[in-house]
Amino acid sequence: MPIWVTPVARYMARGLATTAGLAGVSIAVSVMLGIVLGALLVLPSRAVRLLVRWYVEIWRGLPIIVTLFFIFFVLPIIGLTFGTFVAAATGLCLWGSANVAEVVRGAAQSVSRGQADAATALGLPWAGRMRYVILPQAARRALPPLVGLVVNLTQQTSLATVIGVLDVLQASQRSIERLTLSSGATHAAPILGAVLVVYFVICLPLTLLSRRLERSL
Amino acid sequence: MTESPDPVIELRDVHKSFGDMEVLKGIDLAVSRGEVVVIIGPSGGGKSTLLRCVNLLDPVTAGQVFLEGEDITRPGVDLNRIRRRIGMVFQQFNLFPHLTVLDNLTLAPRKLLGVERGEAERLARDLLARVGLTDKVGAHPRRLSGGQQQRVAIARALMMSPHVMLFDEVTSALDPELVSEVLDVMRDLARSGMTMLCVTHEMGFARELGDRLVFIDGGVIAEQGRPADVLDDPQQARTRQFLRKVLR
């Protein structure tokens, strides 16, 4: 094995840990926040719906990279400074939660009106109807698109590299640069090949799971 | 006829519009305790809307609804609390498909009345025995026939010990051979003294168990009276016309 492989692998493993952490945080927060926001989108109150609708449309409508630049480069002007990891996680969570909210809203609205009628007639208040009747049914329908979003979020973590987060992609870039400077050879092919394999190995099973869930509905 | 000694339900000049369309154009109706009132009429005439206005699934546009003397259309009423006293069964059953039969029955009493699981399940088993479905306790609704689902739906409504039951065309979605098993349960319920308001096309049921028959057409009560009287000797031309069609 060439001598450069071990240090590069170690460096990239650190990057991979960051990628995993970023994906984990983004997915967890996006799903939890998105479910709450999605439920609010089917609330009878028009004012609340409107407010959440704005949130969803803004963060879903902006390219993640624009949001990241905004958080990392613009917010410090008004005194809000974030580390690269927090800035990246925040941007991904805004985008992710907005998309999860849309999925949850769509799934909740696809549950037939008769279900809400029956729950209402029994005397269940809104929160009870959502929790015990609508959301459990919506969850099944939301699962395939949610897994798709999880895959997407995992892939989008690579954007964090543009604001300097040392994720697996950034680690590979820096390794390539260092090797070029020190030895003249880039070794770009094996290093970027490894990155490719890493993303593929994480995302393929999830994609397959999503497709399978879709079929089993 | 609208003057009754102990009305469980009373509607006073109830109007209901959806957008520009007025579906109910001033309904006055009182249902006494233990009375079985059967509502018939052409589709689109406002029968189902009327039922949905009783428990305010559809809020009324004008007029008042009283439950046991309490105006439940006044602002600030805790409707969810009120609805516990009004059981409702739907044409499409509307069982919760993600829950077993037992959980369909116990959900509301456990979450709303704080009944303990064991106690709720005992009550549920009693009611399932009453509707003849003891063996379906653990089944999911999709495993049941339409008739079985509807009997579960009736049992589910009874779990809350309602003071009145609303039946919205509960046999209309059933295969003909499954209608009688549901009507049997309703007959049993009527004989037990339950106050019932039934929208139906089952004229035989109306004649046998109805204390009163109400014919609704064009958003108003066109005619009402003892079922046998209305069915055999309708006074209004449009009642005659409707009955000719359904009894043919």
Task: Describe what you observe in this structure.
By secondary structure, chain A is an all-alpha fold. Chain A has eight helices and no strands. Chain A has one domain: MetI-like fold (Orthogonal Bundle). Chain A has helices at about 5-40, 45-60, 65-75, 85-110, 115-120, 125-155, 170-185, 190-215. In chain A, helix 1 packs antiparallel against helix 7 (about 170-185), helix 4 packs across helix 6 (about 125-155) and helix 6 runs antiparallel to helix 8. Helix content of chain B is about 35%, strand content about 25%. Chain B has nine helices and ten strands. Chain B has helices spanning about 45-55, 80-85, 100-115, 115-130, 145-160, 180-190, 205-210, 225-230, 235-245; strands at about 5-20, 20-30, 35-40, 60-65, 70, 85-90, 165-170, 195-200, 210-215, 220-225. In chain B, strands 6-7-8-3-9-10 form a six-stranded mixed β-sheet, with helices on both faces. In chain B, strands 2-1-4-5 form a four-stranded antiparallel β-sheet, with helices on one face. Chain B is globular, with a radius of gyration of 18 Å. The mean pLDDT of chain B is about 95. The interface of A and B includes residues 112, 128, 132 and 140 of A.
Please give a quick description of this structure.
The complex is a heterodimer of chains A (217) and B (248). Chain A is mainly alpha-helical and 217 residues long.
Entry keywords:
heterodimer; A: about 220 residues; mainly alpha; MetI-like fold; 8 helices; about 80% helix; B: about 250 residues; alpha/beta; six-stranded mixed sheet; four-stranded antiparallel sheet; about 35% helix; globular
Q: Average pLDDT of chain A, to the nearest integer?
A: 91
Please work out how many helical segments of chain B DSSP would assign: 9
Order of helices and strands of chain B: EEEHEEHEHHHEHEHEEHH
Largest protein-protein interface: A-B, 18 and 25 residues
Structural class by sheet pairing and helices of chain A: mainly alpha
Query: What would you report as the Rg of chain A, rounded to the nearest angstrom?
Result: 21 Å
Query: How many domains, in number, for the residues of chain A?
Result: 1
Q: Helical percent range of chain A?
A: over 70%
